[in-house]
Amino acid sequence: MRTVQQLHLTRLQRGFTLIELIIVIVIIGILAAVAIPKYLDVAAEARLGAAKGIAGNIASASATNYAMRSGFPAKGSAVASCADAAGLLQGGAPAGYTIGGSITAADGTGGPCTVTDNNDAAATANFIGLAI
Q1: Domain tally for the chain?
Q2: Of 56, 77, 78, 82, which has the maximum CB count within 10 A?
Q3: Which ranges of the chain would DSSP assign to H, the alpha helix?
Q4: Distance between terminal CA atoms of the chain?
Q5: Tens of pLDDT along 63-116?
């Protein structure tokens, strides 16, 4: 017959065995090995999506500027290059992004601008030139 002290000691000695802990660590390692590449893919897609969003904003701001100038000749900003088109964004181009392109556009014609972030995610926007 067991005494109360012996029962108390057997309860204190309960726990996980070494093999159980190793199995859990291996499972966590496998999950991490699968999750890390997925995270990197998502991060790259997010950078590309941000560059595309900025490119779309530049194209939209350029079209709006051209339409405003067409309706109200005293309004609008001169746009002859990609740098000018990026300047149409409120606050200018976001930090960490480069707006490039060598096209100089005449009134009503446009050209492509390339939006690139620090990690080389790139997107293209077409702007509309506007002489004032």
Answers
A1: 1
A2: 82
A3: 4-12, 18-71, 82-87
A4: 103
A5: 888 888 888 878 888 888 888 888 888 888 888 888 887 666 666 677 788 888
